[in-house]
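Q: Convert this sequence to structure tokens.
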Amino acid sequence: MGKLFKFHTDVDTDQIIASQYLLFPTIDEMKSHTFESLDPTFAARVRPGDFVVAAENFGCGSSREQAPSVLKALGVRAVVAKSFARIFYRNAINIGLPVIVCKELYDHVEDGEEMELSLTEGTATVHGQTFSCTKLNPYMQTILNQGGLLASLNREEA
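A:
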């Protein structure tokens, strides 16, 4: 169970982490500026296990991998959206941040509500209402459990 932070359609990677913060040497230094232009209090309010919920085309814009990385570093458990920009989706899987497509959820929730997400069942539950989402197959779940595609591939090579 975690709190959801609701964002709009077409949230781009510059809104997730603005380009001026890419000059910081580490993700840990960048993360306090996550969503700064949309919600300056986000990084201070989000807690490990919380969720980002958005409408269509989340993560559009540049291919910066720091965008999913700052979300993961803040402890965001998953991003749930109606749809994702392909490059954000791939970058998120690469670093082990679950990105879940859930078409109906966005229109039925409000910022700050509590949500429960089952990656294996493919469901999100908010105020007693359950929504069908992407159900991760066991292989994808293993990749995420190992910290992402890069960590999983490194493990296989060892």
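The beta strands are 2-6, 51-54, 78-81, 99-101, 114-118, 123-126, 129-132.
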